[in-house]
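Reopening closed ticket. The problem is back. First fold of the pair:
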Amino acid sequence: MSRRGAVFAVVAVLCAPVLTTPGALAAPVAGGVVAWGATDYGAVPAPPETGAGVTAVSAGSLDTLAIRNGGVFAWGDNNFGQTEVPAEATSGVSRIASGWAHELALKNGKVLAWGNDWYGQTAVPAAALSGVVDIATTAQHSLALKQGGQVISWGTRTDVPPAAQAGVSAIAAGGDHNLVLKNGGVLAWGANSYGQSTVPAAATSGVTMISAGYNHSLALKDGGVLAWGANDEHQTEVPAAALSGVVAIEAGWSHNLALKSTGEVVAWGSDLSGETSGVPVFCGPVTGISAGDRTSNAVSAKLC
């Protein structure tokens, strides 16, 4: 059931962002975090410590992570110790992924995990302790992408189809489904009650980026966003502004963000807490975006 009518928003910035590639910024640019949306768990607004030196942000359901000066900084709810960053994750971190009260970080090819482990989502398997190039997580399971394109999965969902054992270039974890990018085409598996794992024909070639929400999926092709799966919050109804010129996409639980080459941040889907209607007006370059559960974030942004 829809929690609230959908909202679509476009906000322009005055400088163009750095182009992005699957899993990371093409060239990390240090800046600050601007957060909007739900304030009930302390993830919004972003704390003063994240006002500079941040190169990446990842919003979870209850908390948010940032890479600041090479180390992980966490804020928000801490009922499961998820914002207590382990010493090993305070330097040399290249990737972060925030889930439901649990966190992942990538350091020198090794996955670090902490926080809630009800489903084994922080019990990192031996295969993910070396040679990892990217990470993803969601409510109850986690993914790692190894050199050579092998996907590792743990938590409630441990299955990886043969097609995802090699040659994969990007990963995305949904609520109970996964997306991977291989040879420009999207592969999906797991829960499919809303069609979130039924990849449309348009997403089987020419795709450059993927992102998974709780029950919906996104792909970026030729600068336009493709969306499928649950639509209870209109999260798969891509607005015209996101059909061209997009360089980065982020699916939250039930809403989406898109970053355009012109510097526009486009938001659509659920708006229970202003996660789509509350997009700030930026006056500086936006180099990263992240959507969580009722929260949204931008990196390297200056407010007007």
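Second fold of the pair, where the issue appears:
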Amino acid sequence: MIQNARRLMLSEVPRGLMGLGRLTVARSALMDVPRGDGGTVMLLPGLFNGDRSNIVLRRYLRAIGYRADGWGMGRNLGERSVGADGARLLAAIERMAGRTGQPVALVGISLGGVMARIAARRTPELVRSVVTVSAPFAGPLDGMPMWPVYRHVLGIDANDQTVVSLLKEAAAPSPVPATAIWSAHDGLVGGATCHDDHCRAIEVRSSHLWVQFNPDVLRAVAIALALAN
């Protein structure tokens, strides 16, 4: 088990690049999905990433009929980006819903997915559905292969009561339709932490790095949004 986790972690970069390379030959398969209904979608980036990291996903969702946009808050640096108690994120969702006059579907990558689940719990009237992609909402932090690195870089204490409370909130059953897209081959956060029995789960074969560029993941997002309609 430990050796397999180490192998997956060390192979993240080449596997991620392989997923990127498949985009060039996957166009016809990507368009063979249920069409969007014009609904609004907010894309939440993963840790250290900003809206540019989701440019392919954004263009894809627009091409199949959604009004997709980024979250507009720069790089995802945790609390520094979303504000104390997530206030800036909740305000951004409220503004987007106000502009369109309809609830917003949230699609979150990794940490962005954890944030999306928390936001949905706090403002279910503004959120149509939640789709998480490789988001570790369903397991303890120290169960992630990359946890020692995250702990050092972010200075997070897994036993801090604020952190524990947020994780419990993210893991609680969603008040809106929720889908978790996950991979058993995720070498950074581990697939087991990215889905549970309280929401629809779609398994893909993917790395964690550049997961949002993997054609299988793009298709899974489109299917998840359609199923939640």
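Update: turned out to be a display glitch only; the data is intact. The first helix runs from residue 2 to 10. The first strand starts at residue 40 and ends at 44. Please close again.
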